[in-house]
Design goal:
Blueprint: H1 2-11, H2 17-43, H3 50-82, H4 102-126, H5 134-168
Helix pairs in contact: 2-3, 3-4, 4-5
């Protein structure tokens, strides 16, 4: 009976596949949004003020960071939870793609979220005179600081764990 339960649990990891396929579709929607931003930036480039151009570029950077985050979660999540990716004959794959463990994924996620939060805050700063209130800006700064503090605490915890392991060896 125990073996059957373990087998069912092991096979259940394949229930995650639709989620990862959904992330592929989400990546496509981010690509469409990026193309829309790019087209808008190029077609209206002569009429934009400096601030408007910067906000457009920041929007494209934001979408690019988010797409990168989706790719990291997609590959490392599938590799760690569902099945190993077969790299045979795939020399163009980045080296990290099959080497990101949960610790690395955690760091990449926090770093990406902090970067996305920072870009969002920069966009808000650029729109401060037009549409962003001081209260909204305050909360964006607080959220960004929370992400950064979480990232620092996670790095500190990893440092202590590595040091403890070093002392044990």
């Amino acid at each position: 009976m125990e073996r059957l339960i373990e087998r069912v649990i092991a096979v259940s990891r394949w229930a995650l596949v639709p989620f990862y396929l959904g992330l592929v579709v989400a990546l496509g929607t981010l690509f469409v949004a990026f193309l829309r931003e790019l087209w808008s930036a190029v077609s209206n480039a002569t009429s934009y003020s400096e601030h408007q151009a910067i906000v457009k570029v920041l929007s494209m950077v934001d979408l690019t960071l988010m797409a990168g985050l989706v790719v990291v979660v997609l590959f490392s999540g599938y590799e760690n939870l569902v099945s190993r990716l077969d790299q045979a004959g795939e020399r163009t794959w980045p080296e990290w793609m099959t080497q990101v463990d949960f610790g690395g994924l955690k760091k990449k996620l926090f770093a990406a979220m902090a970067a996305i939060s920072g870009v969002t805050m920069l966009k808000a700063l650029m729109k401060l005179e037009d549409t962003v209130s001081e209260s909204q800006l305050f909360w964006l700064v607080v959220i960004n600081l929370v992400f950064l503090a979480g990232y620092l605490l996670m790095a500190l915890a990893d440092w202590f764990a590595a040091r403890a392991k070093q002392m044990a060896d």
